[in-house]
Specification:
159 residues, mainly alpha
């Protein structure tokens, strides 16, 4: 599955910067707690930054059933620490009851606010790592591809 997404990213049109910026924006957006809206956040931001909107959509797959159980508690703890909340003070939250009523005002302070704030540091760090890795990978992939095509063209000329 990872190989599939890697190849899709390598073949996206645009400069290595545009592809890398798109992936980075998608990964940063994936750290937010707004599952289902990551693409809606990533695409306009990628557009504004001159990044690939397709790469941004692919980058949002960073939030998936394997990573979300790690991302959510991590962002909540980081956010609670940054905001100065005592994480132990929210151990008695009845999440089922809060989600049953779907009252965003009751969810914001104890859950969503710490997760949004807590998503910023790991989002920026992982976004920078994904930007650098994607930029290097796309540039290398395209250079190798150009070398192969040049070599093939040279063989056709000499034949």
């Amino acid at each position: 599955m990872v190989e599939y997404y890697r190849l899709k990213v390598m073949r996206i049109g645009g400069s290595p910067h545009a592809v890398a910026a798109g992936v980075a924006v998608g990964v940063i957006s994936a750290w937010t707690p707004f599952l289902g809206f990551h693409v809606l956040f990533a695409i306009p931001i990628a557009y504004l930054l001159g990044g690939s909107m397709i790469a941004a959509a692919i980058g949002t797959t960073f939030a998936n059933p394997i990573t979300c159980p790690i991302i959510w508690p991590l962002t909540w703890k980081i956010g609670a620490t940054i905001l100065g909340h005592d994480p132990a003070g929210h151990d008695n939250l009845d999440l089922g009851q809060l989600f049953h009523h779907l009252d965003i005002t009751q969810l914001w302070r104890p859950i969503l606010e710490p997760m949004v704030i807590g998503a910023i540091p790991p989002g920026l760090i992982s976004g920078a790592i994904f930007y650098a890795g994607t930029y290097w990978a796309v540039r290398s992939f395209r250079n190798r591809r150009m070398e192969r095509l040049t070599a093939r063209a040279g063989m056709l000329k000499s034949a």
